From TrEMBL:
Species this protein is from: Sulfidibacter corallicola
Pfam family of the protein (one): PilZ
Chemotaxis phosphatase CheX-like domain span: 299-394, 470-562
Protein name (Swiss-Prot/TrEMBL): Chemotaxis protein CheX
GO molecular-function terms, A-Z: cyclic-di-GMP binding
InterPro entries: CheC-like_sf (IPR028976), CheX-like (IPR038756), CheX-like_dom (IPR028051), PilZ_domain (IPR009875)
Keywords noted in UniProt: Chemotaxis
Length: 587
C-alpha cells in the first residue's frame, strides 16, 4: 500500500502527532548499515528537531516515523542544531507511507463497533455438517481494511487456526460484506482474516471509504491533541496562579496527589478480592485511555470528593466474572445478574474505596457517593474529565477484573457551596425534584427552543432507561447527597449536539456524549438558585455517560429514583434524581 499525503496542512498534522505522542524516529544514514533512534520535536511550522542519544556518521539519509496508524519514510538532509546530538530538518511537502499491506487498515471506535457473523467452512471452502452450519459465531470488529478484518470472539475457538476458511457477514460504511475468508492468525480470542475473491468494485469502494474515514479520524485525533495541549496550558496557568498564592510549591504536587490515591486503591482491590472471594488478583497492566474501551455487562460506580482530587471509580465486569465472584462470595450456583449479584458488585466497589481511605494522607480524605449499579449487555462508560481514565486490569481465577479510575483536580464548580446555617429540611424527597424539573423545562424550551410536555412523575427503585444514552452526575452538598440522570433518545441527542455546536451528525460519538453530559451539568447548575431558597446548596461531580442497549441503573442509597418522562418536539427524554440526607455534613 502506498498512502501519499500532499496537503501541507495534513503533512504538518501527521508530524505534530508523531512529535506529541513521542513515537521515536529511526534515522538510517546514507551509505551506512546502522540505524539510530531519535526524539522528534516541533520547532515551528517549517522545521522539526531530532535529538539523538549518540553521534551519527552522516546527516543525509532516511527517517522513518510512526504517526497515527501509519508508518512514513522521508528522505532528510539534517542540519546541526544548537546543542550536541541535536539536528533540525525542513518540514517536507509530501509524506509517503510504505506499508506491506495492500490497503489502509483502520481501527473501529468502540462506540461504532459492528458485529461480524462467522460460519465455519471445511478445507474445501464448503459448509461444515448440518450441526456446524447452524453454529454462528458473533464477534466485535477491531480493525478493518478493504481486504481483511480482525475481530474478537467471546471464547477462543480451536477451529480458528491459520489456513482455515470461514464465511463472514458484516456491514461496513453501509456496504454489506458476505465473503469467504482465510484465517491468517488467531491469538486467544482475536482473529485476523484475509478476504478471498472479494468483488473488485466492492473492494475499491471499501478502500475509498476507509481512506476517507482515516482522514476523519486523523482530524479528530489532531483536535484531541490540540484540546490536550490547551488543557495542559490551562493546568499550568492554574498551577502558576496557585504558586503565586502560595498554594502550590511544586509542579509534581498534582501528580503526587493522583499517585497517593491510585496506589491505595490498587492495594485495597487486591486485599478485598482476597479476603471476600479468596481470589489472588494479578495486575496485568495499568494504562491511560480517553474512554473505557472494554465492553462490560455490569459496572458499579462510586464518586468521591476530597480537598485536592475528585473522581469516579468504576468496577467493571463481564457477565461470567460477576457470576463467578457471586458464587464464591454468596455461595450457590448463580446463573443470572440478579439483585444479589448487583448488590454484591456495588458493595465490593464501596469496600474498595472505603478501605483505601485508611492508607491516604490526612489531607486526602474524601466523601463518597452511594454506589450506582449499571447492568446492560456490552455497555461502555465514559467521563467528561480533562484527564484520561486510569484503567487497571487484573487477572484472577474467574476472569478479568477492570477498575477504571477517573480523576480531576478540585476546582470551584457552579460557584461552590454557599455557607449557610441551620439544618436542611427533608420533609419528603418529592419536593426536591421541582428545582430540577423546572430547570430542565426552562433549558429545553428557552435555551434549546424545543417544545416539551411532562408525561408524569413516578418513583422507581431501579431505572431501566428507555434509550441507549444516559448522562449522570453526583451531587455533594451541605446535608445533601444525590444523583441526577438524563436519559435521552439518539435522535434528540444528535439534535442537542447540533444546537450546541452547530454541527450535524448521524452517529453517536464522543462529541455527542459530551454534549449530553454537558446538558445534565447545565440543568443542575441552573437549579441551584431554587435549592438555595430551600437552604440547600451543593457542588457536582464530573458527569459520566453510559452508552449501551437495555442498561439498568440502580441506586444503593436510601431513596429510590424520582423520574419524570418528557415528550419533546425532537424526541423523548427522562430526567431522574435521587437525594439522600447526609447528616455528617450538616454543621
Amino acid at each position: 500500500m502506498k498512502f501519499t499525503v500532499e496537503d501541507s496542512d495534513k503533512v504538518l498534522i501527521y508530524l505534530e502527532i508523531a512529535a506529541f505522542t513521542k513515537a521515536p524516529g529511526i534515522f538510517y544514514p546514507q551509505d551506512s548499515g546502522r540505524h539510530f533512534e531519535a526524539a522528534l520535536e516541533k520547532v515551528n511550522n517549517t522545521q522539526f528537531r531530532l535529538t539523538f542519544k549518540q553521534w551519527i556518521p552522516a546527516q543525509v539519509g532516511l527517517l522513518v516515523l510512526r504517526s497515527f496508524t501509519l508508518q512514513f519514510k522521508l528522505p532528510v538532509n539534517l542540519e546541526k542544531g544548537n546543542k550536541p546530538k541535536e539536528y533540525v530538518f525542513a518540514t517536507p511537502s509530501v509524506l509517503t507511507s510504505h506499508d506491506p499491506r495492500k490497503y489502509v487498515r483502520i481501527p473501529i471506535a468502540p462506540q461504532l463497533t459492528k458485529i461480524v457473523v462467522v460460519r465455519k467452512l471445511d478445507d474445501s471452502g464448503n459448509p461444515l455438517a448440518e450441526e456446524g452450519r447452524k453454529k454462528l459465531i458473533q464477534g466485535a470488529i477491531q480493525d478493518v481494511s478493504a481486504s481483511g478484518i480482525a475481530f474478537k470472539v467471546a471464547v477462543a475457538d480451536p477451529f480458528f487456526d491459520s489456513g482455515k476458511q470461514v464465511a463472514l457477514t458484516y456491514n461496513l460504511f453501509g456496504i454489506t460484506i458476505d465473503a469467504v475468508a482465510r484465517v491468517v492468525s488467531a491469538s486467544g480470542n482475536l482473529i485476523r482474516c484475509h478476504l478471498l475473491n472479494l468483488n473488485k468494485a466492492i473492494q475499491h469502494q471499501l478502500d475509498l471509504k476507509i481512506t476517507a474515514s482515516l482522514q476523519r479520524m486523523l482530524d479528530k485525533h489532531h483536535q484531541d491533541l490540540i484540546n490536550l495541549i490547551e488543557a495542559s496550558s490551562n493546568l499550568r496557568k492554574l498551577e502558576r496562579e496557585k504558586q503565586q498564592r502560595g498554594e502550590l510549591t511544586d509542579r509534581k504536587q498534582l501528580d503526587e496527589n493522583f499517585v497517593e490515591l491510585i496506589n491505595p486503591i490498587l492495594e485495597s482491590t487486591i486485599n478485598v478480592m482476597e479476603s471476600l472471594a479468596g481470589l489472588k488478583l494479578v495486575k496485568r497492566e495499568l494504562r491511560l485511555e480517553r474512554i473505557c474501551s472494554a465492553i462490560y455487562d455490569i459496572s458499579s460506580q462510586i464518586s468521591f470528593k476530597g480537598p485536592k482530587v475528585e473522581g469516579h471509580l468504576f468496577l467493571c465486569l463481564k457477565d461470567t466474572v460477576a457470576k463467578g465472584l457471586a458464587n464464591r462470595i454468596l455461595g450457590g450456583d448463580t446463573q443470572e445478574l440478579d439483585a444479589d449479584v448487583q448488590d454484591m458488585t456495588g458493595e465490593i466497589c464501596n469496600i474498595i474505596v472505603g478501605n483505601s481511605k485508611k492508607n491516604l494522607p490526612k489531607d486526602q480524605i474524601f466523601k463518597l457517593s452511594t454506589p450506582t449499579i449499571i447492568v446492560g449487555k456490552e455497555h461502555l462508560v465514559a467521563v467528561l474529565s480533562r484527564y484520561p481514565v486510569i484503567r487497571m486490569i487484573f487477572d484472577c481465577e474467574v476472569g478479568q477484573v477492570d477498575l477504571n479510575l477517573y480523576l480531576d483536580e478540585i476546582q470551584e464548580k457552579l460557584n461552590g457551596i454557599a455557607a449557610s446555617g441551620g439544618t436542611p429540611s427533608f420533609t419528603y424527597k418529592t419536593e426536591l425534584i421541582n428545582p430540577i424539573l423546572n430547570a430542565t423545562e426552562k433549558i429545553f424550551e428557552n435555551y434549546l427552543s424545543l417544545e416539551t410536555r411532562k408525561k408524569g412523575v413516578v418513583m422507581r427503585e431501579t431505572l431501566a432507561p428507555k434509550f441507549e444514552l444516559s448522562a449522570l452526575l453526583d451531587i455533594f452538598g451541605k446535608g445533601l447527597r444525590g444523583k441526577v440522570l438524563l436519559n435521552i433518545s439518539n435522535r434528540l441527542a444528535l439534535k442537542i449536539h447540533h444546537i450546541l455546536l452547530g454541527e450535524e451528525k448521524t452517529l453517536i460519538d464522543d462529541q455527542v456524549k459530551d454534549a449530553v453530559g454537558e446538558m445534565v451539568n447545565i440543568i443542575t447548575g441552573n437549579a441551584k438558585g431554587e435549592f438555595g431558597r430551600m437552604n440547600l446548596s451543593y457542588t457536582v461531580s464530573t458527569p459520566y455517560v453510559i452508552f449501551g442497549r437495555n442498561h439498568i441503573i440502580s441506586n444503593a442509597g436510601d431513596n429510590p429514583f424520582i423520574s419524570s418522562v418528557y415528550w419533546s418536539s425532537e424526541g423523548f427524554f427522562e430526567i431522574c434524581l435521587s437525594f439522600t440526607a447526609d447528616p455528617t455534613d450538616v454543621k
